[in-house]
């Protein structure tokens, strides 16, 4: 299971990196956004059950179901007319639990909408150490001179493999700009 998770996260990164390396001149109304993410996550389970699950990957310690998150967000935006509102397709690759001497890989694909005011919501599939699931996210993005600062709360829906969880993430994003003259 562990090797499949790392393989899937690696494929996610390899397939999305070429997307952000495209020229700035693309289809009208389409933007690429990229940036780091950090946050915290809590899994609604007991520390004992969380430890039992995590020790399959990182044996020899006790773990707590509250842990830090660090990673990267890659986003493609489909602009709606001449407004700042847009649909978004996001790929997130995160590592959780570094403060507890573990590195839990997490990958999510979100499809959502962001209003011109900055309000945003989305949902999509999630894969992490506990299996696969669905994540719902809601938040706000503040735009500061071309840099976007999102503040999001996401809820991982429970299923038969995993308990529910909640995360708070932030970071910053910026448009990827690459001109043809930069490549020669």
Walk me through this protein's architecture.
The protein is built from two helices and nine strands; from the N terminus they run H-E-H-E-E-E-E-E-E-E-E. With 184 residues, the chain is mainly beta. It has a single domain (2-22, 30-178), classed as Porin (Beta Barrel), CATH 2.40.160.20. The longest helix is centred in the N-terminal third of the chain and has 19 residues, at 2-20. The chain is elongated. The chain starts with a helix and ends in a 9-residue tail after the last strand.
Write the layout of secondary structure elements.
Blueprint: H1 2-20, E1 30-43, H2 47-54, E2 66-79, E3 86-96, E4 104-114, E5 119-128, E6 131-144, E7 147-156, E8 165-171, E9 173-175
Antiparallel strand pairs: 1-2, 1-8, 1-9, 2-3, 3-4, 4-5, 5-6, 6-7, 7-8, 7-9
Keywords:
single chain; 184 residues; disordered C terminus; 2 helices; Porin; mainly beta
Fold-level CATH name: Porin
Shape: elongated
Share of β-strand residues: over 45%
Number of domains: 1
Q: Major beta sheet, specifics?
A: 9 strands, antiparallel
Class by helix and strand content?
A: mainly beta
Q: Roughly how much helix do the residues carry, as a percent range?
A: 10-25%
Sequence stretches where pLDDT stays below 50 over 5 or more residues? 13-27, 180-184
Mean pLDDT: 85
Number of helices: 2
H and E string: HEHEEEEEEEE
Question: Under the CATH scheme, which architecture would be assigned?
Answer: Beta Barrel
- How many angstroms does the end-to-end distance come to? 44 Å
Number of DSSP strand runs: 9
């Amino acid at each position: 299971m562990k090797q499949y998770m790392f393989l899937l996260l690696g494929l996610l990164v390899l397939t999305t990196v070429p997307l952000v390396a495209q020229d700035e001149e693309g289809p009208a109304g389409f933007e690429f956004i990229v940036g780091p993410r950090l946050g915290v996550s809590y899994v609604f389970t007991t520390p004992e059950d969380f430890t039992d699950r995590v020790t399959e990957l990182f044996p020899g310690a006790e773990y707590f179901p509250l842990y830090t998150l660090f990673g990267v967000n890659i986003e493609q935006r489909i602009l709606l007319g001449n407004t700042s509102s847009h649909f978004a397709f996001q790929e997130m690759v995160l590592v959780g639990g570094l403060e507890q001497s573990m590195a839990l890989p997490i990958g999510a694909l979100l499809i959502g909408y962001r209003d011109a005011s900055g309000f945003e919501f989305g949902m999509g599939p999630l894969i992490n150490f506990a299996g696969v699931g669905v994540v719902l996210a809601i938040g706000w993005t503040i735009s500061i001179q071309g840099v976007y600062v999102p503040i999001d709360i996401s809820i991982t829906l429970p299923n038969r493999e995993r308990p529910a969880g909640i995360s708070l993430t932030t970071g910053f994003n910026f448009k990827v700009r690459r001109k043809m003259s930069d490549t020669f």
